[in-house]
Design goal:
Chain A has 297 residues and is mainly alpha-helical. Chain A contains 15 helices and no strands. By secondary structure, chain B is mostly helical. The chains are: A mainly alpha (297), B mainly alpha (304).
């Protein structure tokens, strides 16, 4: 067989120009972007429509009728302000505990050999596999035993150091070369000094990622707060939201469907604001942090 | 040089010994804050649940030891298997679709020359950072049979109303769509990290070989991405079988139990203060999820 026939046997496919190719990709991404953003945009825009219009004309938009009424009603009807305060308190305390404990423990697991290390880390891995919901019964009983039901401690301490955070930090810190740590040691740096002066600066991007992920998880946590902090005084933002939602799905007797829907969309819009702000500002760190963590996973 | 230094002056030796001791104790000090919280609110409740699963206990009074009765009760109960089946169907509706969609989006976003790349990355992650309760509630309103936007859109093109959340045929796909919409952005991020590890020159060789885009995606990207894909599958399997909040808010397990997931069924025992059964159900769920994860890991190993 000659070289010429071989070329004819395998002809090149017709070349699509780069321009058409990019246009196709852009079209594909635009369709999906619209699908991903539309529900959120719709919810926020609808929150400003008169409650009756949301229900009777969900797609229509009459600029002249836009109003703050849903927000006013919602703030008057549900303890969303208290929900924000409770969430902020839990977020500050629980987030600090996670961000303090996880890198330290991750450092110990990654860079020291000590008796009991494997047993401990194995236990961490097992809890990583366990559904959070498994621990709800005994945790609730523990809270009752301690008299912590409907308290901040109950919202803050359980789950404050989750296994995923430890695992992630260990992975990231394991990548730091030992020579770097030993060099610091020879220079007379103490063990904790090595952590603060060498390890922390190196893992900063992953820490930023962990911070955003932790904030997101705590802010959005809903299962545990519903179980342990159901009183109005202790309700977090997510508990307030879910109570409102049940008024719709549960067809609360006497509740006006349109009014509750309007209030709900207003509450949802307000609840999304803090997280979206945090996310847009930190998205670069967030994405890089996850990339740094999952590369080794 | 070290020896001379050590023999010449005993002080550094003492200092050295102290440094070694410090180094041996340091990990315990670093781990202590974590252990304190973990033991009290992680390990203790886990052992408690295990013990509880062999008893009959309604939340007060003394627990009666009943051996494996809770487990046999669940394993012979059609409702338990029904909840597992519901989660299984949801898994089928969610995971394959999410893998395809995730790979397509990730490959498109992997192109550094793509315009608006940063915007797309944020857009796809918006549902992921939006509070789940908020997302679920948007779903309730949008998919409402009488007033929802989706049926409004269908009406515009002359299609009849669909009871998205009120008929057992449509409730599962609607729930699956919610989950897909909420978590695909996160899957894309994980897949992007896998794509970045692929050597570019492999693609150049394939292009010279005349392989078209789809062909390159299927025979180069997907095989090289297998490890990451399996990581995603294990992660999402955990998430789907533990799914609780979504059906709790959107459908409350209905209509006719069609969206009572494994996670929600488990919650139901707790809600009725049937704590022994709930504990047993927890561990059965863990076993199922672990077996599935092991199966996926095995698949990875045999094909390597």
């Amino acid at each position: 067989m000659t070289a010429a026939t071989r070329v004819r046997v395998r002809p090149r496919p017709p070349r699509v120009t780069a321009g058409v190719r990019t246009a196709g990709t852009q079209a594909f991404l635009w369709v999906l972007t619209v699908a991903f953003l539309a529900p959120v945009v719709w919810a926020v825009v609808s929150a400003f429509k008169p409650a009756t219009a949301i229900v009777s004309d969900p797609l229509g938009l009459d600029i002249g009728t836009l109003t703050w009424d849903n927000f006013k009603l919602m703030f008057a009807d549900v303890p969303i302000g208290q929900g924000f305060v409770n969430t902020a308190i839990v977020l500050a305390a629980k987030g600090s505990i996670t961000l303090f404990c996880a890198p330290l423990a991750g450092y110990a697991f990654a860079k020291y050999r000590f008796p009991g290390r494997n047993l401990l880390f194995g236990t961490v891995l097992i809890t990583l596999m366990l559904p959070v919901i498994v621990l709800i019964i005994p945790l609730l009983l523990e809270m009752k035993e301690l008299g912590w039901v409907n308290t901040y401690q109950a919202l803050i301490l359980p789950g404050a150091v989750d296994a995923f955070a430890i695992f992630w930090m260990r992975q990231v810190i394991a990548e730091i070369p030992d020579e770097l740590l030993d060099a610091a040691r020879i220079d007379g740096c103490g063990e904790f000094g090595i952590f603060t002066r060498i390890v922390l600066p190196v893992i900063k991007p992953a820490m930023a990622g962990l911070a955003v992920l932790t904030v997101m998880n705590i802010y959005n946590d809903f299962v545990w707060p519903v179980v342990v902090a159901s009183s109005e005084r202790m309700a977090t933002l997510q508990v307030v939201l879910s109570t409102l939602a049940q008024n719709i799905t549960g067809n609360r007797i006497g509740a006006d469907y349109a009014t509750v829907t309007g209030e709900l969309l207003a509450a949802v819009s307000v609840a999304m604001i803090p997280l979206l702000i945090i996310f847009v500002f930190l998205q670069k760190h967030f994405i890089n942090g996850i990339l740094a963590g999952s590369m080794k996973g | 040089m070290t020896t001379t230094a050590l023999t010449a002056d005993p002080a550094p030796q003492r200092g050295h010994r102290r440094a070694v001791l410090r180094r041996q104790l340091a990990p315990y000090a670093f781990i202590l804050p974590f252990i304190a919280v973990f033991a009290a609110f992680g390990v203790y409740p886990m052992i408690f649940t295990l013990r509880l699963s062999f008893t009959d206990w309604r939340g007060s009074g003394t627990a009666t030891w009943i051996g494996i009765d809770n487990y046999t009760y669940l394993l012979t109960n059609p409702a338990f298997w029904g909840s597992m089946a519901n989660s299984g169907v949801l898994w089928l509706l969610i995971v394959p679709a999410q893998l395809v969609l995730g790979v397509l989006i990730a490959v498109a976003l992997d192109n550094a020359k793509l315009r608006l790349r940063g915007f797309y990355r944020v857009a796809f992650l918006v549902p992921f950072v939006t509070p789940l309760v908020a997302v679920a509630q948007i779903w309730v309103v949008i998919f409402d049979r009488d007033y929802g936007v989706v049926n409004g859109l269908l009406g515009l093109v002359g299609l009849p109303d669909v009871g998205w959340l009120t008929t057992s045929a449509w409730a599962k796909p609607t729930l699956a769509l919610l989950f897909l919409w909420k978590t695909t952005g996160f899957v894309v991020i994980i897949l992007l990290s896998g794509l970045q590890a692929i050597d570019r020159s492999v693609y150049d060789a394939a292009e010279i070989d005349g392989a078209n885009r789809l062909r390159r995606l299927w025979s180069i990207t997907v095989p090289l991405l297998k490890r990451t894909l399996l990581f995603v599958v294990v992660l999402q399997t955990l998430a789907v079988f533990q799914m609780f909040a979504e059906p709790y808010v959107v459908t409350d397990g209905g209509p006719y139990g069609s969206t009572t997931t494994a996670g929600l069924y488990l919650y139901d025992h707790i809600n009725r203060a049937d704590l022994g059964t709930g504990a047993a159900n927890s561990f059965l769920l863990v076993i199922v999820v672990m077996l599935m994860s092991l199966l996926f890991v095995r698949l990875l190993r045999t094909e390597d």
